[in-house]
Amino acid sequence: MLKIDACASEILRPACGQLSDQLLASDVPVIIRSLVADWPATSACKQSPKQAVDYLQRFDAGHPLTACLGGTECDGRVFYNSDMSGFNFRSERMPLAHALRQLTVNAALEKPPLMYIASTNIDRWLPGFRDHNEIAGLAVKQPLASIWLGNRSRIAAHYDFPSNIACCVAGRRRFVLFPPEQLPNLYVGPLDFTPAGQPISLVDFKNPDYQRFPKFRTALKSAQLAELEPGDALLIPSMWWHHVEALDSFNVLVNYWWRNSPPFMGAPLGALQHAMLALRDLPPEQREVWRGIFDHYIFDPPAAQLDHIPESARGVLNPLDRDAAAKIRASLLRSLQ
Fold it and tell me: How far apart are the C-alpha atoms of 244 and 322, rounded to whole Å?
């Protein structure tokens, strides 16, 4: 295990059960002990994997879901294959009932093959689950809720644009977290070919190769550790890198995602990819000109930069609303075609 000196800050579940706006806006990770300890799902999972399966199957809508399946040789690591031409797992569609049954069978094995079911929308696959298992006060954020199922797994460090509360329902979880500025020290892989959509660190946290990844030692100086028991939760702010390890033979995690900007706004990763298409390979002097333009309009706009334009004529320079965002999307689609 990595030697990490700092642990994420932690609090006990508020007596009222409701999370404050200040906590939800935190810009550092926070462990919330016992936040979901009284969920019926958590209580069922604490009894046994069978009780957990019986409880989850009450809500099964019958839609097939996608499972990542790997051999024992991958040691739980969901990753690329040896030459990064593919992955070390295969994806298979299966009913939830089959997946849960296989997990309980594998739980009895000393070294089971990897089975990992990533972010699965609860409202579609387990309708009604949230009527009994929900976080008080979070509805105002209109979060998307997902469930994750599996046995022992290791998920490479990655970031998520939405803020996130990860709730440990069954099995223990270990998170290693890094602030966004550690990107240069995490040796991130491809942007357009990833195991699950997000760029990931190529460092094996179980056996880091410091000769190949020497700057990872610098990243570890800023790392925070968060270890969760069933019933605990972890607030992960937007863009914080996090490596996630499921430590037991049967694991269930529920998380809630929300963005701190209107849903009609675009995905920043898409803007990065478009910038690669349009700007990255320009001559250096032209890139510098565009750096200044981006600072002027996006990153460091002068306070009075628009005073010379009538407000009614500013178009997309005004604060964006749904209609203005739609016009930008339409313009982008025309230009990309």
Answer: 35
Model pTM above 0.90: yes
- Of 110-114, 281-285, 303-307, which one has max mean pLDDT? 281-285
CA distance 96 to 70: 18
Q: How far apart are CA 178 and CA 180, in angstroms?
A: 6
Asked if residues 59 and 186 have their Cβ atoms less than 8 Å apart, the reply is: no
* Maximum pairwise Cα distance, the chain: 71
- CA–CA dist 77, 218 (Å, integer): 23
Query: Cα-flanking dihedrals φ and ψ of residue 71, to 5°?
Result: -80, 175
DSSP state of 112: P
Tens digit of each residue's pLDDT (9 = 90 or more) over 137-147 = 888 888 999 99
Q: Which residues of 100-126 are buried (b: 16+ CB within 10 A; e: fewer)?
A: bebbeebbeeeebbbbbbbbbebeebb
Tens digit of each residue's pLDDT (9 = 90 or more) over 83-122: 999 999 999 999 999 999 999 988 888 889 999 999 999 9
Angle subtended at Cα 70 by Cα 65 and Cα 71, rounded to the nearest 5 degrees: 150
Q: For the chain, what is the mean pLDDT?
A: 93
The contacts of residue 180 (CB under 8 Å, 6+ apart) are 159, 239, 240, 241
Residue 109 has a pLDDT of: 87
Q: Among 63, 65, 67, which Cα is nearest to 78's?
A: 67
- Among candidates 255, 258, 10, which has minimal Cα distance to 133? 255
